[in-house]
Amino acid sequence: MINAYIFYSIAHKLYCWKIPIIPNILKLLCFLIYNSNIPFQCKIGKGSKFGYGGIGVVIHKRTVIGENCSIGTNITIGGKHPHYEVPVIGNNVYIATGAKVLGPIKIGDNVIIGANAVVLKDIPSNAVVAGIPAKIIKYND
Q1: I need a labelling partner for 26 at 20 to 30 A (CA). Which of 11, 12, 14, 104 fits?
Q2: Omega into 104 within 30° of 0, i.e. cis?
Q3: Is the pLDDT of residue 130 over 70?
Q4: CATH 2.40.50.100 matches 41-139
Q5: Which residues are catalytic?
Q6: Domain ranges of the chain
């Protein structure tokens, strides 16, 4: 089945090839179908996927997401005023439904972000975080 990641990947390739207009049309189509804003300018690694097609996902256009990440529904990954920087997410990260990842932060590899967590600080690799604001509750071996 077609999902938001497919729309994103086609639009991103066209954007990299400097083909105008079509990436914007694909982004709009993704918004109309999935009610999500996944800009073709952001970088999402191979093997990453969106839960339920990517319903309600909002990603900042300068965000970098690593490979093999799993992103749930109603996720926001974006900036925080007054900072210019946006989140950089490592490889093999699982972001559960409703989580918010905001500001100039780095998320390490193999991290699990719990449902509805609000991440405002850097998270080291192999951590499990949850809560508002998110706190490390466990380290994976």
Answers
A1: 104
A2: no
A3: yes
A4: no
A5: 81
A6: 41-139
